[in-house]
């Protein structure tokens, strides 16, 4: 994560020269990131920031430009999914408020770690947090998605949608004022159970820039929202957090409008397609895509850890090995996004073909 | 007008005792005069116009990138310069999101109707 202390002060160090290959790369990653975002509520950021940095963009500019493209993309995605009746605006705004506090504390933790253990310590903290959170949460969501799929196939229709997570069922019974009713999500929950989910979402967003990896599973398993509503509502949280973050970075002069607009060009195509895709799939598919991406990214971060351990003199490795691990880590991140996009596109195409066949069969009967 | 003619023809057949024929005429008439589905599909001209605007915007930003970069960087010198990239992003989002949505709609890539 880039912070204020790593901001370049010379304009020539801030803005890189763009060529056709770089523009093409940003457009494609923007599209895939947007597709995943529109479908699972978050994603893309974890490839875009290191991707831009590998092009020579300074860390602060990469984070700022990524953040600045994220908030309009999330607004467009949230707007589309609101139209499909999947967004719980009230839940999104409550989550965003508490997430804001999480972001502030997350930044403070980052600053403390960097001050105490330096850049390598900060990077090690980010990678370990990335790996542990994604492995635990991703693994749980993956197992749950498999169970939900099995249940849906056995009982037909959308039976899995009606089953609320066991923890959420227990928490919903506890009457701890203020109790808030969320109509679209179909839940009534105490603010004191929503606040920690929002807080951790913000904390993770400040640490690994992908708060949705906590926000969406949190809304599903702790608050009891369906995967479709949780992933759509996360876009509201991302819009609010992205907007405030973008103002901060724009005031530091770190937003590269050229990079932002090229990524946005691809991601606005992707996010709308992803949102359309959610109307063709069953609830468990969102969980399945999300957990697959999370688990691959977890492995990717695991490969990045030795480099920081070496920098902190906690282990020794040849420079070539570190280089191979670093490249492997980045390639795995790209693979995570590509696999997610492939599953989403396959689900959309399958869903559309089935719907057209059903329509044709109906017209034939009439 | 066509509706009245259909009704009159059906009445004439009904009065003549040919109720089946009258019913058939009414059914065909209603099928012909039924309103088209309310799906709002943008015209290809609108989509092309939005596409030109969207790509033109990017072209202009890349063509005048030195000025754009200077304005971006001025955000750190205080004042309202920080609003420049945010306003530009908002304008571009409006143009390009409508273009992308229109394009998907035109090719029939739309949300599943419940």
Helix content of chain B: over 70%
Largest interface: A-B, 40 and 36 residues
Query: If you compute it from the alpha carbons, what radius of gyration of chain A comes out, rounded to the nearest whole angstrom?
Result: 21 Å
The string of secondary-structure elements of chain B, in order, is HHHHH
Number of contiguous helices of chain A: 12
H and E string of chain A: HHHHHHEEHHHHHH
Global mean pLDDT of chain A: 86
Strand order of the largest sheet of chain A: 1-2
Enumerate the spans of chain A where pLDDT stays under 50 for 5 or more consecutive residues: none
| Helix content percent band of chain A | over 70%
Overall, the morphology of chain A is: globular
Written account of the structure:
Chain A has about 375 residues and is mainly α. Helices cover about 80% and strands about 0% of the residues of chain A. In chain A, helix 5 (about 90-155) crosses helix 11, helix 8 (about 210-220) packs antiparallel against helix 9 (about 225-250) and helix 11 (about 285-310) packs antiparallel against helix 12 (about 320-365). The N and C termini of chain A lie far apart (about 60 Å). Chain B is about 70% helix and about 0% strand. With about 110 residues, chain B is mainly α. At the A-B interface, helix 4, helix 9, helix 10 and helix 12 of A face helix 3, helix 4 and helix 5 of B.
């Amino acid at each position: 994560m880039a912070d204020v202390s790593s901001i370049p002060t010379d304009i020539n160090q801030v803005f890189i020269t763009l060529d056709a290959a770089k523009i093409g790369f940003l457009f494609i990653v923007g599209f895939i990131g947007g597709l995943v975002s529109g479908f699972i509520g978050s994603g893309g950021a974890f490839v875009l920031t290191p991707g831009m940095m590998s092009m020579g963009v300074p860390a602060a500019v990469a984070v700022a430009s990524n953040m600045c493209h994220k908030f309009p993309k999330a607004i467009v995605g949230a707007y589309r999914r609101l139209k499909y009746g999947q967004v719980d605006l009230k839940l999104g705004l409550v989550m965003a408020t508490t997430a804001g506090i999480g972001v502030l504390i997350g930044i403070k933790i980052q600053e403390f770690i960097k001050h105490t253990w330096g850049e390598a310590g900060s990077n090690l903290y980010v990678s370990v947090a990335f790996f542990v959170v994604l492995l635990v949460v991703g693994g749980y969501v993956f197992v749950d998605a498999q169970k939900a799929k099995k249940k849906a196939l056995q009982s037909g229709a959308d039976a899995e949608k009606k089953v609320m997570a066991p923890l959420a069922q227990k928490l919903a019974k506890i009457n701890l004022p203020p109790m808030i009713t969320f109509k679209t999500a179909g839940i009534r929950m105490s603010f004191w159970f929503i606040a920690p989910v929002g807080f951790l979402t913000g904390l993770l967003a400040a640490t690994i820039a992908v708060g949705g990896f906590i926000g969406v599973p949190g809304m599903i398993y702790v608050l009891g929202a369906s995967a479709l509503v949780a992933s759509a509502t996360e876009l509201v949280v991302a819009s609010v957090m992205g907007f405030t973050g973008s103002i901060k970075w724009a005031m530091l002069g770190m937003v590269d409008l050229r990079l932002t607009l090229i990524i946005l060009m691809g991601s606005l195509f992707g996010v709308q397609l992803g949102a359309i895709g959610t109307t063709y799939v069953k609830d468990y598919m969102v969980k399945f895509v999300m957990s697959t991406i999370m688990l691959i990214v977890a492995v990717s971060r695991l490969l990045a850890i030795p480099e920081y351990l070496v920098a902190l003199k906690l282990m020794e490795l040849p420079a070539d090995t570190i280089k191979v691990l670093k490249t492997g880590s980045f390639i795995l991140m790209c693979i995570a996004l590509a696999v997610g996009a492939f599953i989403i596109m396959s689900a959309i195409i399958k869903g559309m073909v089935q719907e057209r066949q059903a329509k044709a069969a109906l017209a034939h009967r009439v | 007008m066509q509706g009245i003619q259909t009704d009159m023809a059906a009445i004439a057949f009904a009065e003549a005792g040919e109720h089946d024929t009258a019913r058939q005429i009414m059914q065909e008439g209603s099928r012909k005069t039924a309103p088209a589905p309310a799906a709002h599909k943008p015209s290809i001209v609108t989509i092309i116009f939005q596409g030109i605007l969207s790509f033109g915007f990017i072209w202009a930003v890349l063509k005048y990138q030195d000025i754009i970069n200077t304005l971006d960087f001025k955000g750190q010198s205080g004042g309202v310069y920080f609003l420049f990239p945010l306003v530009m992003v908002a304008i571009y989002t409006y143009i390009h999101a409508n273009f992308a949505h229109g394009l998907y709609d035109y090719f029939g890539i739309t949300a599943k109707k419940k």
